[in-house]
Amino acid sequence: MNIPTTSIQTFAALVPEIILVATATIIYLAGAFFPGKSRPTVLALIGLIAAAGFMLCDDQRAETFTKTLPALFTGPLAVDLFGHSARWFIVIAGAVLLLLSHRAADDEQGPEYTGSVVMMLAGLMLISAADELVLLFVGLELVSIPTYIILYVGRRGAASQEATTKYFFLSILSSALLLYGFSFLYGLAGSTYLPNIARALQSQFAISSAVSPLAAVALLLIFAGLGFRMTAVPFHFYAPDVYQGTTNANAGLLATLTKIAGLLVLARIVVGSMPGVESLGWKVMLAVAVLTMTLGNAVALWQSNIRRLVAYSSIAHGGYILIGVAVGLAQLTLARDDVSQPAQAINGLGTSLFYLATYVLATLGVFAALVYLESNGQPAENVDDLAGLAKSHPFASVCLAVFMFSLAGIPPLAGFWGKFSLMSGTLDVGAPFSDSRQQLQTWFLALAIITMLNAAMAAAYYLRIVAVMYFRPATKEYPATGGGYAPRLAMVLSVLLVIGVGILPGWVMNTADQAGISVRSTKSSGGTATSLSADGLPAGAAPIANGPAATVNVVQAVSPTRESDR
Amino acid sequence: MDNWLNILLILTVMLPVAGALLVWLLGWSGRTDIRPLALAVSLVTLGLTGWIISCYPGGGKELAVSNFSWLGGPDSIVNIRFSLGLDGLGLWLFGLSSLLTLTAILVSWEAITERRTAFFGLLLLLETGMLGVFTARDIILFYIFFEFTLIPLFFLIGIWGSEDRRYAAVKFFVFTLAGSLLTFLSLLAIVLWNYTATGQMTFMIGELVAGLQQHPMDASLQLWVFLGLFAGFAIKVPLFPLHTWLPLAHTQAPTAGSVILAGILLKIGTYGFLRFSLPMLPDGTAVCTPWILWLSVIGIIYGALVALVQTDFKRLIAYSSVSHLGFCMLGIFALNSLGMEGGTLQMINHGLSTGGLFACVGMIYERYHTRQISEFGGLARRLPFLAFFTLVFTFSSIGLPGMNGFAGEFLLLAGMFQRGWSESPEQLGTQFMWIAVLAVSGVVLGAWYMLYMIQRIFFGPLKEPEVHLDHGHHDHGPASPAGTTAHGTSAHDSHAHDTHGHGAIATLPPGVPDLKLREFFALAPLVVFVFWIGLYPEFFLRSIRPNVVDLFPPAARDLYKNYGDPIKRPYVEPLDEAIANAGPAHSKEAAQ
């Protein structure tokens, strides 16, 4: 068992995060000395650009971004394609987020607010790079703790207090569950280092070839802890109250950043480092996915408050995202049980990552538009408040319509490709002619059909918003100027990204697919698996190399692909 | 030659989008009148469309094939390609899309007064969607265009529609989307099956057809995949129990929306059956054929009976669409050459005649602001030219010989009788004959409800709803209820164009003007094609035929496989051969 050693290289790999934390600190400090003078958004953006610049230099050293990026393993970090592309995405989403929350707090509390947002981004980036339980948890808390501040800053109303308190206690509870789950993993492996955990679980599975009860408990606890962040049923119930009780900017933050955090940790630990529990894992994920999306969509149909509606929509999207995780785990189950599996056409986890990206872009856009409209402290509360928006704010309503259509999955927007890749993955396992087992086929085929019916149901409430904006006369006056340049810029950026990814999704989709593969294949400490993934070998065919028996498996699994390559 | 032609095709498909963007950019200030620009774009598109169609060599070939990598490459997970091309199935629908867009723009010229920029931009956007659907050679590209048509029409109905427009728009969208999402699953299943069977990840329709014909899916699987495709296409058509969104959408839509919805968008459903279901899933098609035929014929009779009792003329024509699309489906699922040629031709015929009828009744509505048949009478005296055009389209719709409807209906009914008489499996023989006979009764009913409507509106003593006489056209925003007095702003120019209404009836008191030059040009091209197809259908059939004859044999084979061998009837062969050999030009004599 190798113990990760922290070296100067580890810190070098963490420079982007360190830059962001430093930026946040400067913002906090500057806020104390120059209160209410200038907006710290610019400073935050500069920090973000500096972090991006560093990552760009890093990319220059690697050949190309998508396929041959060598994974950098240093100490408790794994900057593989998964972590790296996630970091890039967080930088982009973070820029939009900073812009849309430009005026989210009062002048005096502006620095605290912006600094906390930057801190959350740093936490997220740490999560994407961490390969060790403690570091992962630190990253998660770096996301959670600033959230409490953000929710509380400058809000004195009873509703927002309730929302904050509710979120605070549930978040603590979820962290506790997560830690409890981590402790089981540590108990099983005797290490907090994820590759070690993966090896330990793998060798245990090789002996017993059944799901170890302790690992199962760990899985359930970890998933419960992450379920809060992904608003998965039955841990979803806080979301509507909290989103409704807080501001548009905060709701946008919660709807996107916490979901990113949830999926990243889920991918790293459950998909990436827990071999042997896949067969339990996909069942749990599938059941929760079905419940989550159906409940979210069904309840969203009856909402009249916008943020409540978007909250239920984001719950539903959490369910969609879990579909990909379930597919990924099912693919791993198949690959584990049957080495002669044909190469999977599409990696399940990759589809989740891609879907998450499309969801985040569109949701950020929705909230950017809402923030833009809320100037003069008069936010649009109800869907009916948007009536006649097409006349008073034609551009904002076009943007909102684009985001709604994207969330509904109408081509040619980003959301369509999200649904496309999710369904490709699901049918890859679920189609009656796929080589998977009967049980999986039935379940995943049912999942595909339920998802499509859900998508149709969801279209109804997204369209309602569009219909209100375009088909009804105004009932509420909005200031003609709108909410300032920063939210407008955030809105424009999101709309460009949503349309851009809609027209040319190939690069993002491929990167997500490869990233999904890299989570599992880089787990073995040797260079073998890494170089395999560099060859574009699908995850299903690259089991964890561990001990002589597993090595044989690798050879068997690899040889057909190699031959076909020639 | 094909090299520049494929560039031309891409330009043609994309030109309306560019036009729409230009319209929106210029119209931003609100001062420029963007209608001439929209008209110019649609005219250029029509010209290019005509040019491309005139280059079509026939013989089932594909024309102007372009094939660009769009997402990923051959080694990537998604090898979706931007590939356009035209063959006999899509050729005329492609042309019809351009033609009806022109009509739609012309009939909206004065009818739309609010948010004109948005309206004409959306019409052009819709045109790209339609042109793309009929030319896409990639299954996902097809689906993208297919879904994309929903967005512009949603806004067209919802913003510029009549009193119940919001409900109609949302119902239309959600209904169609629900079906097409299941279609999407089936399309993916087809792709993945092909990948499993051939090891090649391809989304090209042609390669998928080849792959699925070499490695057909299991029968039970085909049935499920077929039902998934059916969900989307049958709602779009719409087939009988799934038609409820259509009358609502048609009645509430603005005239241009109705014209395009009836003329083109419904055909995407039948086109989908032709393009995907029949060649890719012959067994699934065969198993479902009796059911679909029954649903079609129920739709024919039901649509006709409901049309008979309508009091609202737009609603009447909407139900007639349900009936006529039943004929198209009947022809396609007759699964023989005659039926499928007829069904495909009837798709175009219905687009011309019903598109024209919707345009005509839209013009009446524009003049009187009411859709109630009972409020009209003897309009032929007031509006002789409009009455003439309406009559032409009516006769075309009921299938008067010499006009397009006859050619299509005769062929497809002949095909259905052929299927029922000589080509039906033992256990289905009686059923198929009944279906054919009932379908013929649908033709009679069709003549009844259409002529009854025409008689009430255009003949008898003159009866007009109250209108302000000095207003040639109305200005109805979404907020103004139908029937209120219009407040036209440019009444004078309507008289300037009124070159057709003068002289004919001097004794009448002054009233609404007859057909204007603009309206004449909206309808006249359709009439040309009504007679062209009616008098010389072979011109159109010869480009359709080579493509459809490839489509039905696998499905027909599987029909016999599932339901037993065909009945042997002694004197069948001569009749069959006579019809098949003589071709449609002679088939009229055979009917008499």
What is the succession of H and E elements of chain A? Answer: HHHEEHHHHHHHHHHHHHHHHHHH
Can you give the mean pLDDT of chain A?
81
Determine Rg of chain A (CA atoms, Å). 23 Å
Strand order of the largest sheet of chain A: 1-2
Could you tell me the strand content of chain A as a percent range?
A: under 5%
Q: Name the average pLDDT of chain B.
A: 83
The percent of residues in helical segments of chain A reads over 70%
Strand content of the residues of chain B, in percent? under 5%
Shape of chain B: globular
Helix content of chain B: over 70%
Runs of chain A in which pLDDT lies below 50 for 5 or more consecutive residues are: 63-68, 524-566
Shape of chain A: globular
For the termini of chain A, the CA-CA separation is: 36 Å
Please give a structural write-up.
The complex is a heterodimer of chains A (566) and B (592). By secondary structure, chain A is mainly α. Chain A has helices at 8-13, 15-33, 41-61, 81-100, 110-129, 133-152, 158-189, 194-208, 213-229, 238-245, 248-273, 278-300, 306-337, 348-373, 389-392, 394-408, 414-430, 438-471, 485-503, 506-521, 527-534, 547-565; strands at 72-74, 77-79. A two-stranded antiparallel ribbon of chain A has the order 1-2. In chain A, a hairpin with a 2-residue loop joins strand 1 and strand 2. In chain A, helix 11 packs parallel to helix 13 (306-337). Mean pLDDT of chain A is 81; it is low at 63-68 and 524-566. In chain B, strand 1 (68-71) and strand 2 (80-82) form a beta hairpin. Chain B is mainly α. The model of chain B is unreliable at 470-505 and 586-592 (pLDDT under 50). The relative contact order of chain B is 0.10. The longest helix of chain B is centred in the N-terminal third of the chain and has 34 residues, at 165-198. In chain B, strands 1-2 form a two-stranded antiparallel sheet. Chain B is built from 22 helices and two strands. In chain B, helix 1 packs antiparallel against helix 4 (116-135), helix 5 (139-148) packs antiparallel against helix 7 and helix 11 (255-280) runs parallel beside helix 13 (313-332). Chain B is 71% helix and 1% strand. The radius of gyration of chain B is 24 Å and the shape is globular. Classes of the chains: A mainly alpha (566), B mainly alpha (592). At the A-B interface, helix 17, helix 18 and helix 20 of A face helix 5, helix 6 and helix 7 of B.
